């Protein structure tokens, strides 16, 4: 008996180490075929110019920046409110397969992809920005709210009268127990909404991202610094100005502000044309559906699209994903001790905290955009951006967990590198691996979206199809993106179950208390 128990304890750990080694080996194997060259003529000189500008912020356009910041907040509040309302209504029905599949489908498409699709129907309007945030967020809210309801104490629902209907049980026995978790998660998702709202500026909506894009193209790096400072202040102070009693006031004010936006006119019947013509594959749109030749042309069209665009785009997306995932893991392993004062010291922990806040608060698309200006159009900017952003998120969560672990140790516990290597890392390694696997699915979505910047992932081909007004091709490519995201999520869950980390407990600002809710808290953007 005594000889068997230790072996059982070692197997999960060996499995976890083997899994990490396999991911690292795969990333290393992909390096020779990855386009990691520095395409810029003099990246370090450009980086120096950017650094000089960032050290001397230019607030001469403060009026325009304040307006853009207000719009960023308004888009976020309206989009999150609409998404939360839809998710709240869908959550009790999430157990049903059609609802669950719908939510998976809509949340697997990035907000920017939704925005460029909606531009074809609603134009450059407030509706486009609000729906681009609300649609994927509705799927996320439905999943998370459903999990909170399922994890609530089931005894009050069981004590309801036998004839109590579904609505009564939900509102009187289940919902009150999860209301606080709903509220806390809503605040977290609003922070994500601010990031999403800022990024929507890159498709033309007048948020902070639009100002950032404009100043970068003009080489006005001091003004870029001003945009970033305002953005970070918004994120950092959100919990100070967003109080629940004021939420209705903010929502009403945001709706009124959105109503003042002027929208370029769209052609009559844009929605009908989009649904009945634009998204219909060209061979079917122009052919007789009863004719076999029409279907032959359709399958030729589909084959060419999948082979010539979807396959190379998906290949590049997965290469970026795997290398960025491993980079994120290394960033997390190096970064999480920066939050633990006994490891790095007081001054080091302050610097580390600031660095991780900047890394996780800056949207990956924005980071990729900045890196693109320095290194040029290869996959290197995408890998750097995704690795830093996701690594900072994982490091932040692990740092918080490590602080709790250190508090549970004896007072004479070691400090510095010994504490990191022999006490903290072995205890949080399972959580580290779980977080990396959770972020795997998210990195796939993010790898696809950076293609809008000209990097040859799936987003590049989607953007080209939109520019050529071939919406039917864009829809097929987005379906490929969705299927890839769902497939990685499925494989990730299988990995987590196989190596025994499906039920790990971790904390994130007191929101998640299980692995599933932890995934909900760090997913999405």
Task: List descriptors.
single chain; 525 residues; mainly alpha; disordered N terminus
Task: Note the topology.
Blueprint: H1 4-30, H2 43-54, H3 62-90, H4 97-107, H5 111-122, H6 126-151, H7 155-158, H8 166-199, H9 208-217, H10 221-236, H11 238-241, H12 247-259, H13 270-278, H14 282-285, H15 292-335, H16 341-344, H17 346-361, H18 364-375, H19 380-407, H20 416-449, H21 458-467, H22 471-498, H23 515-522
Helix pairs in contact: 1-15, 2-10, 3-6, 3-8, 3-10, 3-12, 4-6, 5-6, 6-8, 6-23, 9-10, 15-19, 15-20, 15-21, 15-22, 17-19, 18-19, 19-20, 20-22, 20-23, 21-22
As a whole number of angstroms, the C-alpha radius of gyration is 24 Å
Major beta-sheet overview: none
Percentage of residues in DSSP E strands: under 5%
> Number of helical runs?
23
Number of E strands: 0
Unreliable runs: 1-14, 504-517
Structural class: mainly alpha
H-E string: HHHHHHHHHHHHHHHHHHHHHHH
- Globally, the shape reads globular
Average pLDDT metric: 84
Helix content: over 70%
Distance between the termini: 48 Å
């Amino acid at each position: 008996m005594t000889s068997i128990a230790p072996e059982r304890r070692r197997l999960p750990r060996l499995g976890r180490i083997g899994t990490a080694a396999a991911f690292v080996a795969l990333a290393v194997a992909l390096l020779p075929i990855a386009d990691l060259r520095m395409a810029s003529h003099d990246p370090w000189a450009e980086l120096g110019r950017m650094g000089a500008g960032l050290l001397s912020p230019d607030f001469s356009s403060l009026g325009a920046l304040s307006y853009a910041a207000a719009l960023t907040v308004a888009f976020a509040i309206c989009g999150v409110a609409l998404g939360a309302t839809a998710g709240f209504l869908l959550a009790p029905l999430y157990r049903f397969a059609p609802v669950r599949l719908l939510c998976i489908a809509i949340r697997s498409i990035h907000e920017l992809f939704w925005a460029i699709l909606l531009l074809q129907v609603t134009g450059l309007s407030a509706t486009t920005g609000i729906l681009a945030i609300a649609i994927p967020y509705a799927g996320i809210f439905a999943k998370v709210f459903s999990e909170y309801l399922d994890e609530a104490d089931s005894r009050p629902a069981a004590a309801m009268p036998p004839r109590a209907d579904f609505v009564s049980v939900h509102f009187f026995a289940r919902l009150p127990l999860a209301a606080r978790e709903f509220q806390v998660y809503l605040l977290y998702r609003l922070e994500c909404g601010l990031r999403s709202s800022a990024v929507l500026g890159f498709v033309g909506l007048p948020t902070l991202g639009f100002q950032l894009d404009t100043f970068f193209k003009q080489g006005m790096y001091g003004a870029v610094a001003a945009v970033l400072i305002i953005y970070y202040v918004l994120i950092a102070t959100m919990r100070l100005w967003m109080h629940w009693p004021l939420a209705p006031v903010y929502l009403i004010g945001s709706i009124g502000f959105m109503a003042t936006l002027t929208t370029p006119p769209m052609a009559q019947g844009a929605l009908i044309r989009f649904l009945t013509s634009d998204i219909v594959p060209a061979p079917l749109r122009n052919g007789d559906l009863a004719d076999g030749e029409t279907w032959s042309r359709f399958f030729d069209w589909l084959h060419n699209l999948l082979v010539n665009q979807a396959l190379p785009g998906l290949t590049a997306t997965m290469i970026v994903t795997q290398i960025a995932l491993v980079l994120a893991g290394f960033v997390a392993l190096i970064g999480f001790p920066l939050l633990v004062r006994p490891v790095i010291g007081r001054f080091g922990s302050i610097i580390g905290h600031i660095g991780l806040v900047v890394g996780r608060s800056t949207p990956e698309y924005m980071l990729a955009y900045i890196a693109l200006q320095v290194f040029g159009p290869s996959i290197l900017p995408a890998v750097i951006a995704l690795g830093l952003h996701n690594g900072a998120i994982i490091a932040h969560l692990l740092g918080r967990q490590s602080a709790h672990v250190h508090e549970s140790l004896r007072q004479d516990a070691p400090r510095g590198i010994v504490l990191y290597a022999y006490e903290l890392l072995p205890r949080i390694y399972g959580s580290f691996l779980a977080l990396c696997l959770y972020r795997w699915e998210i990195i796939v979505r993010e790898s696809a979206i950076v293609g809008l910047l000209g990097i040859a992932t799936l987003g590049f081909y989607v953007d080209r199809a939109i520019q050529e007004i071939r919406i039917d091709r864009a829809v097929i490519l987005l379906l490929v993106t969705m299927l890839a995201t769902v497939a990685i999520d499925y494989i990730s869950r299988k990995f987590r179950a196989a190596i025994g980390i499906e039920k790990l407990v971790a904390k994130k600002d007191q929101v998640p208390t299980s692995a599933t809710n932890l995934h909900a808290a760090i997913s999405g953007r």
